[in-house]
Specification:
With 272 residues, this protein is mostly beta strands. It is built from one helix and 20 strands. The protein has an eight-stranded mixed sheet, with no helix packed on it.
Amino acid sequence: MPSRRTLAKGAAWAAPVVAVAATAPAFAASQPPVVSGSICQLFYGGGTINYQTHSMYLGVKSSTGIIPAGTVLSWNICVSGGGSGTGGTNEVPTTNYSATAAWTLSLSQTSGNAITGGCFTATITFNQNYTTGAGPGGTWCAAALLWTDIYSIRPGASVSATSNAPTGPVTSGGSGTLTYTAARRHPTSINSSGRTPHYYLTRSGTQNCYPAVQYSVLLSNTGYDNVTCYPSGTTVANPCNWDGLGCVGTTGLCAPREGGVQGGQYTQPQLC
C-alpha cells in the first residue's frame, strides 16, 4: 500500500503563507531592542491513532516592537515517545513562511524524515528591519512548525521546546523552555473512547506563560475531547467562559470543555 507521503506527491501540499505586520523603517535607536523567543500558541486539528495534526507557533518579543535586520532566533525542539497505537513515528515537521521574505524559517533536518536523535533546531532569520505588529513588548506570533498527516507527530508524544538567546544587533532577553505532552484526540474515530488530553508539564525562563491552545472541532465531536491539563497549583483564568459552555476544575490538573455537539473552533484562556 502506498505511504501517505507517496500519495501526497504531486498534490503540491503547500505550507500556509504568513503576511503579518509590515517592514519597519530604517532602524534608528540609541540602544538595541531587547529580544527574546517563546512558544506563543499551539493548535490541534484532526488525527488518528498514528498521528496528530498539530502546529507550534514560535513567538518573538521586542522591547521596541521592532526587530532589526540580521536578528537570528533559534529553538531546540525535542520529541519522543507517543501512544500505544500501531505504526507511525515522530517526524520533522514542515513550516509556514513569509510572503514578503521579511523573515526566513529553516530547520536543521529535512521535513518528513524521522527526527534524528530526537531533536532538531528551528531558526528564524530576519532579513530586513521588521515591525512585529504587536507593539513594544508584545509577542509576534506568526511563524509555525506544522505537523500534518504527511509530517507526523504521534499522539501522546513528549515535546520540549527551548528558545535560545538571540544573536545579531539586539540585546538578549534570555532563553526559556516549554514542555508538554501532545493530545490524542482521535484514537480510532472521532467519538471513540481513548482520547487523552493535552498536558502542560513545565515552563521556565522567558517562557513566562502557558500559551493558548486552539482546537479544530470536527462534526459530531462531542464531550470531553477538548481538554488541557496544567501542573498542580496552576490557576486557570475564567475557567467557565469558553463559548458559554461549562468546565470543571479551577486549579491544576484538567479544565475540560463540556457540552453537546460542538462546531467551529475555540481557544482556551491564555495563562500569562
